[in-house]
């Protein structure tokens, strides 16, 4: 962008920023005018650096001397002004110098952060802090929010040099909220930010996969991963939950399985898709253990269990749901027998090939089971499927049989073209 374009865009973003603030409109307008005046110097520094890139060898020495002279002149100005400049004035100047860099530094060549322009900015900001500017942390957080990694790095150096506290963990939260991965890396590697839990949970809750992946690859504690899984589950962020789940140690899941499901149900906001995902994916690694965890919550009378979660598990995932599924399967079979014997349809179902009769009877059930994402069926569907498998000549089928095995029985009796048209996802471990 040209300097003129930069100023135009900056003015637009300035108005957006001011609109977010509470306060008198007149004061906002005055603040806006002040900020735009103060930004010219910083923008000229960046523009000068961009122009000098093509002829660096010839101008580096003179430009460096020019910057030092400018900084010396500014220092003399501050000394002469003395008490005529208040801490508030210096704080406003510091904010004004940081503001354009906060918004635009990522739009320029990143080399500027280690060049003459950075020296100028760092010198200017350093003098303002020495003079009494007290908003380093505020500007640091703002730069982190906008992903101005170069300015974040400069402010970290100024804070260390002047023994100032900057909230690197809160800054990490801002940067992660807006997906500023480069700034996040700077805050962790150079700012020693260590508070991963809050940002990780919020990213999981919002389904921000890129940020979640970054935290996981950087290395998270077992409980941080477990809480991130709970956050993704409660918000029905299934893709994020599917990514985090394999990273949570099995022993942690086994120890906290009931609490994870209860917490996810309590914060679900009306959707239990995340809970269904965990159960369908057999998140405890053993079908019986996963079913038992769901059944324990369904039968629990604890007040901590959300009524919606209890009702959902009781209807679909409890032992009672399995019994109800068996009963529904039996009633369905009897209805089919009655139709075959006494039905008045002009099409005589008994004259159809057996595979078509099976399709008429059980294709809806097969499709319901086949579209399930995961390796476990709900207990209700499993009950219906067990009964169907028994009626199709596999009387020895045990109630402990699982989805794949049971579906294979139906597939064996269905016409092949219907089986291929209803392929199951079964894509979760």
TrEMBL record:
It comes from the Eukaryota. This is Ankyrin repeat protein. InterPro entries: Ankyrin_rpt-contain_sf, SKIP35. It comes from Actinidia chinensis var. chinensis (Chinese soft-hair kiwi).
């Amino acid at each position: 962008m040209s300097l003129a374009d930069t100023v135009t865009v900056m003015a637009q973003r300035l108005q957006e920023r001011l609109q977010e603030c509470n306060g008198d409109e007149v004061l906002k307008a005055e603040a806006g005018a002040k900020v735009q005046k103060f930004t010219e110097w910083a923008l000229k520094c960046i523009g000068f650096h961009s122009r000098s890139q093509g002829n660096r060898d010839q101008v580096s020495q003179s430009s460096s001397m020019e910057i030092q002279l400018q900084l010396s002149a500014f220092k003399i100005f501050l000394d002469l002004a003395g008490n005529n400049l208040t801490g508030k004035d210096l704080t406003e100047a510091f904010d004004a110098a940081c503001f354009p860099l906060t918004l635009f530094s990522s739009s320029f060549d990143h080399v500027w952060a280690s060049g003459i322009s950075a020296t100028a900015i760092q010198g200017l900001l350093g003098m303002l802090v020495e003079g009494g500017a007290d908003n380093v942390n505020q500007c640091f957080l703002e730069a982190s929010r906008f992903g101005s990694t170069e300015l974040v790095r400069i402010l970290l150096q100024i804070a260390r040099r002047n023994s100032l506290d900057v909230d690197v963990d809160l800054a990490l939260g801002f940067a992660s909220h807006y997906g500023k991965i480069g700034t996040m890396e700077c805050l962790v590697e150079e700012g020693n930010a260590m508070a991963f839990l809050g940002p990780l949970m919020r990213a999981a809750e919002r389904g921000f996969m890129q940020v979640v992946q970054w935290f996981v690859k950087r290395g998270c504690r077992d409980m941080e991963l477990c809480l991130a899984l709970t956050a993704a589950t409660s918000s029905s962020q299934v893709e994020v939950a599917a990514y985090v789940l394999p990273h949570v140690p099995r022993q942690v899941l086994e120890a906290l399985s009931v609490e994870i499901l209860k917490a996810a149900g309590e914060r679900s906001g009306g959707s239990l898709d995340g809970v269904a995902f965990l159960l369908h994916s057999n998140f405890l690694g053993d079908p019986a253990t996963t079913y038992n965890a769901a059944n324990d919550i369904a039968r629990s009378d604890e007040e901590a269990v959300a009524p919606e979660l209890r009702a959902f598990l009781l209807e679909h995932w409890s032992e009672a749901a399995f019994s109800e599924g068996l009963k529904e399967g039996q009633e369905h079979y009897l209805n089919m027998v009655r139709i075959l014997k006494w039905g008045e349809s002009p099409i005589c179902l008994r004259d159809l090939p057996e595979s078509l009769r099976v399709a008429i009877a059980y294709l809806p059930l097969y499709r319901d089971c086949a579209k399930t994402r995961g390796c476990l069926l709900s207990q209700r569907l499993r009950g219906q499927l067990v009964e169907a498998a028994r009626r199709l000549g596999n009387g020895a089928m045990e109630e402990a049989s699982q989805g794949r095995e049971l579906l294979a029985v139906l597939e064996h009796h269905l016409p092949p073209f219907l089986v291929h048209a209803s392929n199951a996802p079964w894509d979760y471990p």
